[in-house]
Amino acid sequence: MTGLPRPAVRVPFHDLRDVHAATGVESEIGGALLRVAARGRYLLGAELAAFEERFAEYCGNAHCVAVGSGLDDARLALWALGVGEGDEVIVPSHTFIASWLAVSATGATPVPVEPGDPGEPGPGAFLLDPDRLEAALTPRTRAVMPVHLYGHPVDLDPVGAFAEPHGLAVVEDAAQATARYRGRRIGSGHRTAFSFYPGKNLGALGDGGAVVTSDPELADRLRLLRNYGAREKYRHEERGTNSRLDELQAAVLSVKLPYLDAWNTRRREIAARYGEALAGLPGVTVPEGRVAEPVWHQYVLRSPYRDRLRRRLAEAGVETLVHYPVAVHASGAYAGAGPCPAGGLPRAERLAGEVLSLPIGPHLPDEAVEVVIAAVQSAALDSWEEGP
Q1: Less Cβ crowding at N or C end of the chain, within 10 Å?
Q2: Which SUPFAM superfamilies does this entry report, sorted A to Z (predicted)?
């Protein structure tokens, strides 16, 4: 018995070896790692200080405090603001679970808000809908956490207009978005949490994150909390934690940072080509950028025939991923836990069944982009009459 013929060209979803080789940073990364090893200091040293200064400057802000993961950045930001037991934080219903876990880790409760209309083509179909914030407000609400998902910034102006009169902190989750909103960089505001997980647009060789802020007092408290509650060794002022970006990761990020804008430009070029070629296909909705300049951390289309489309792409040699296949409130971690609005979260559940991420990245050659396009077109132009 013979299997299906192997496709002539295979397009992996993401391979960091390809990214580093194609973008020419391999040797620089190797040199940075050797430099740190020769120096012999691996925590809270010169590499960390240099990266924090460079990344704060990149974001157009005063302070950057780098931490151990893309979960700890948001967790520590909320903790440093005093969010804790009995408090509530408004979060998007459609996001990676880390956004909710950061809230839960402080003892507070995540209160989900649905995204915009899934029938619309724009990124609002993925992102927290500012018009729904008022309905989620209670006397226990302390903060709002807009998530700039897939590299698309949330419409921040109405979020701020809602939060300010209610005395709420806004903690931006920019784990996926070194982007711009209305001409200003994400990270130029009061408090923004970034992830440096290896697959991010700016990724380390392991876990890492940072909080960028204009508030010197918040930055000082974050530095205290990330280092066991101590500014000076063995002088513990409070019960902190251990969450420090190590020198190796800081050195790697400093190598990559000067290339980030060029890499994001390439992502936008690929996204534009996808959008041009795939718009109007039956059973497929492509994303758009509107009030912002997205950086396309993922290129996520939607289809009610997602699973069949994904199988067809795999047969054509195109690897895809689903971000994310289970809505957070339906996961084992949060199933049955409140508060959840009456009627559930149907938009988050619909998205979990429809989203599909295509390969994208600065390493992807035009030939691979055209293979992806041809595979999607071929699948979508076939009849969907069999159903999902």
Answers
A1: N
A2: PLP-dependent transferases
